[in-house]
Amino acid sequence: MERLVSTGRFGARAVYKLYAATVAAGICLVLYYRAARVPTGDKASGGRAPAWLWLGMLAAELWFGLCWVVAQSVRWRPVRRRVFSDRLAARQHGNNNLPCVDIFVCTADPRSEPPSLVVSTVLSAMAYNYPADKLSVYVSDDGCSALTFYALWEASRFAKLWLPFCRRHGIEPRSPAAYFLESETTEVDQPGDVHCSVQEWSLVKESYREMTQRIASVALQGTVPEEIRAMHKGFYEWGSGVASQNHPPIVQVLIDGKSPNVVDNEGSLLPTLVYMAREKRPQYHHNFKAGAMNALIRVSSAISNSPIILNVDCDVYSNNSNSIRDAMCFFLDEEMGHKVGFVQYPQNYTNLTKNDIYGNSLNVINEVELCGMDGVGGPAYIGTGCFHRRETICGISFTENYKEDWERGITAKPLERMDEIEEQAKSLATCAYEHNNTEWGREAGVKYGCPVEDVITGLAIQCRGWASVYYNPSRKAFLGLAPTTLAQTLLQHRRFAEGNFSILLSRYCPFLFGHGKVRLCLQMGYCIYGLWAPSSIPTLYYVVVPPLAFLNGIPLFPEITSPWIIPFMYVSAATYAYSLYEAVSSGDTLRGWWNGQRMWIIKRTTSYLLATIDTISRMLGLSTMAFAITPKVSDEGQSRRYEQELMEFGPSASLELVIVAATALLSLACLAGGMGRAVASGCGVSCLNKFFLQIVLCGALVATNVPVYEAMFVRKDRGRMALRVTVAAIGLVLPACLIRANIF
Ligand SMILES: O=c1ccn([C@@H]2O[C@H](COP(=O)(O)OP(=O)(O)O[C@H]3O[C@H](CO)[C@@H](O)[C@H](O)[C@H]3O)[C@@H](O)[C@H]2O)c(=O)[nH]1
Ligand SMILES: [Mn+2]
User: Fold this and answer.
1) Residue 142, annotated as binding a ligand
2) What count of other Cβ atoms lies within 10 Å of the Cβ of residue 335?
3) Nearest CA to 287 among 444, 112, 156, 448?
C-alpha cells in the first residue's frame, strides 16, 4: 500500500559537516590560546590584562563554544516531510472513515485580544475542509467576558453564511478578516479563482462588516444590551457575582453539530461550537493557559470526545483549509502513524514588516531548527498549531500494541439533553475538580508550573515513547500575530527564556529526564532554548569588557601580525556568514538579518538577563510564576511606526531600556575614546596592530546600535527614547569611562 507521508533529507549535509569541523577546530584553537596565555598578576601592567579579566574572556568564549556545539544538534540531520492527502482521500472512501477532531482556541483578555479577532480565528477553524459533523470547536475564555461570548454567538450565526460560501468557492484563507483584507490589497473585486457573482461576494462581505461593527459597538458600550441577551440563554450566565477572575464555570453549546435541525444556509450540517469559561476563584491557582487547556480537554470529553485535538491561540487563524487532512496523513500512515503522538506545524505571523525590525520572524527556527529536531526524534510542542492524540496528551505511554479508537466521538448522538450535558461539562471545569488530588497538570494533560508549559509537555510526551512530527507545508497552515513593539517583544522573550531555563534547572532537565528515553541530540536540541537566559551574562561581558579595555589601552586579542588571530577571525567570520546564509535562505531579508543581530544583543542583555534573575528568584521562592499575555493590539502611532520599521522605545522608561541605552553609549564612548587616545599618543599603526579585533568589535556594536543613538539624540516622535532613560544611561556610562585603568 502506498504511504501517506514521505521523509526527505536536506541536501549538502556533507559540506555542512566539513564546515562545522573547521569551526570546531577554530573554537578549540581560540580556547587553547586563551588558556595558554593567562596573564599573571591581578592588576593591569605593561599593557597586559589582569588575570581575572582574561579568565572572564576565556569563560565567555567557552560558553559561546558550548552554545555552538549544542546548536549543532539540530543542524546535523534535518528532515523535511511531505504528505499525500489525495491518497488519504482515496483510502478513506471519501470522508466516511475520517476521525473526529476537536479544535481548542484559547483567549484570555478581551482588551489585549479583541473578540473580533477571536471570531475570525474561530470561523477559520469551523470552515476547515473536513466533514462538519466530525469537527467541534471549543473556545476557552480566561477573561470570562460576556463580550467574547456575544462575539461567538454572532459567529455562530454568520457561520451559516460563511461556511457554505467557503465550501462552494474554495475560499482561502477561511478567516473572514484575513480573506477580505487580502482581497482589498490585491485590488481586484475578488480573487481570480473564486467563481462567484459579484453580488454574492459583496453580500457576504457586507454581512461580515456588519457583524464586526455590531461586535465593536457592543465592545464600546462594555455590556451586551438586553434585547440581544434575550436571544440566547447563555447571556444569563453573566449575572451578579461574575467577575473575570472570580466566577462559577460557564459552558454553553452555541451550535450542536449533531442535531439535524441546526444547518447552514444550504442545509448542510455545521460543526459543533462550544464556549467555556472555566471556574476561577482567588484562592485557587488557575495555571494560566495550561489550566485552560486541561479544562478544555475534560469539557470536550463530555461533549465530542474526539481522538485528535488541534489547539491554536486566539490570534492564530487557519490559513489552509486542508491542514487537518494533511495532519491526519501522519496519524493514519501505516508505517509510522501508530507512534505519532503529536504533529506540530510552525508558528508563522501575518503582521511582520519586510525587514522584521524586532527579529520576531522565527524563520530560522521554523526552517532549520524544528526540522533538525524532527530528524533526531521529533520537534518540541510549541503551544499552537499542534495536533495531539487525546490519549497521548492525557498521559498514556506508548506501547507497540496500543490501538487508537478512531471511532471515538463518531457514534455520539445529538446532545439531546443539552442542559444535562452542559451541567456535566461544567462540573469538569470547576476549580475543585483539579484540587481533589487529581493528576491534572502533573501526569495528565498540559503540565503546570512552567511559563512554557507547551515545551515541557511535549518533552514529557516524547519521553513516554511517542514520536512527534514537524510539518511545514509551503502554504502556511497557521498565521498569528507577532509582538509589534520593543517592550512586547522583550516581555515575550523574557517569558520564553525564563521558561526554558527553568526547565533546564528542574527535574525535567532534558539530560536527566530524557536520559535513555530520547536521543542525546534531541536532549541537546531542547537545551538551545534553555541556554538563552544564562547566555546573557557572557554576552554582557563581551559587550562591556573588550570596549572598556580598549579605552584603557589593554589588548585582549592576538595582534594582527600574530597567526593566532586567524582562528579568532575565522570563527567569527564563518559563524556570522553562515548565520546570514541560514537566515536569508529561510526567508529573511539582508536587513532583516541585520535587525535580528541587533535584537540578538538587545534580548540577551535585557530579557535574558532578567529571565535569569526571574528564574533564580522563583527557585528560591522569592517570586511566583507569571504569564504576561502578549497584546494583539497597539495604538495608532505605534502601528504607524511599526509599519515604518522605526523601533519603539518610548515614552515610558524601564530597566531594559536603560541597559540598551547604556550598552550602546558605552560602545560609542569606548570606540571614540580609544581611537582618540591612540591618535593622541601617536601610536597609529602599532595600536591598530594591538587592538584590531577590539576595534572591530566596538565598531560592529556601534553599527548595530545606530537606531538606538537615533532614538536618543535625533528622533522627535513619541517612539523616541525617553529623556530619563538617556540621562540614566549617561549617568552609568560616564563614571565607567572616567574611572579608567584604576580598576583594571
Ligand atoms: O492565563 C492565560 C494566559 C494566556 N492564555 C492564552 O494563551 C495563548 C498564548 O498567549 P500569548 O500571550 O499570545 O503568548 P505568546 O507569547 O504568543 O505564546 C507563545 O508561547 C506560549 C508559551 O510561552 C505558548 O503557550 C503559545 O502557544 C505560543 O504562541 C493566547 O491565546 C492566550 O489567550 C490563556 O488562555 N490563559
Ligand atoms: Mn501569541
Assistant:
1) yes
2) 10
3) 448
What's the rounded Cα separation, in Å, for the pair 589 and 587?
Answer: 7
> Which residues in 282-390 belong to E strands, given as ranges?
308-313, 317-318, 340-344, 348-349, 386-389
Ligand closest to 289 (CA) is 1
Is residue 339 part of an annotated ligand binding site?
A: no
Q: Measured in angstroms, how far is the CA atom of residue 348 from the centroid of ligand 1?
A: 14
For residue 40, count other CB atoms closer than 10 A to its CB. Answer: 8
Q: Residue 383 CA: which ligand is closest?
A: 1
Q: Which atom of ligand 1 is nearest to the CA of 347?
A: 29
Q: What is the dihedral of CA 445, 448, 451, 457, to 10 degrees?
A: -30
pLDDT over 70 (residue 190)? no
What's the rounded Cα separation, in Å, for the pair 209 and 197?
Answer: 18
For residues 108 and 288, give the distance between their C-alpha atoms in angstroms, rounded to a whole number: 9
211 vs 216: CA distance, rounded Å: 9
Helices (H) and strands (E) in the chain, counts: 28, 13
DSSP annotation string for 413-436: PP-TTHHHHHHHHHHTTSHHHHHT
Over residues 382-433, the pLDDT tens digits come to: 999 999 999 999 999 999 989 988 888 876 566 667 888 899 999 999 998 9
Ligand 1 centroid–CA 596 distance in Å is 23
Q: Whose CA is nearest to atom 7 of ligand 1?
A: 289
From the number of C-beta atoms within 10 Å of its C-beta (0-12, 13-18, 19+), residue 11 rates as exposed
DSSP 452-519: THHHHHHHHHHHTT-EEEE---SS-SEEE----SHHHHHHHHHHHHHHHHHHHHSTT-HHHHTTTTS-
Q: How many CB atoms lie within 10 A of CB 728?
A: 18
Closest residue by Cα to atom 13, ligand 1, is 630
Distance (Å, whole) CA 79 – CA 379: 11
Could you tell me if 312 and 345 are in contact, meaning their C-beta atoms sit under 8 angstroms apart?
no
Q: What is the pLDDT of residues 356-394, one digit of tens each?
A: 999 999 999 999 999 999 999 999 999 999 999 999 999
Q: Which residue has the cell 495555571?
A: 287
Ligand with smallest separation from the Cα of 295: 1
Question: Any idea what DSSP says for residue 623?
Answer: S
Q: Which of 289, 311, 532 to mutate to test the pocket of ligand 1 (most atoms within 8 A of CB)?
A: 289
Bond before 346 cis per omega within 30 degrees: no
The set of residues, in sequence order, having a beta carbon less than 8 Å from that of 642 and lying 6+ positions away, is 353, 357, 484, 485, 634, 648
Q: Which residues are catalytic?
A: 142, 454
Q: Can you tell me which atom of ligand 1 is nearest the CA of 107?
A: 33
**Atom nearest to 451 CA in ligand 1:** 23
* 313 known member of a binding site: yes
The residues, any chain, with a CB within 8 Å of residue 580's CB and separated by 6 or more, are 590, 593
The protein residue with its alpha carbon nearest to ligand 1, atom 4, reads: 289
The conformation of residue 49, written as its DSSP 8-state character, comes to P
- Integer Cα distance of 254 and 251 in angstroms: 9
Spell out which residues line ligand 1, taking CB within 6 angstroms: 106-108, 113, 140, 142, 288-289, 292, 313-314, 383-384, 451-452, 454, 492, 495-496, 499, 627, 629-630
pLDDT surpassing 90 at residue 96? no
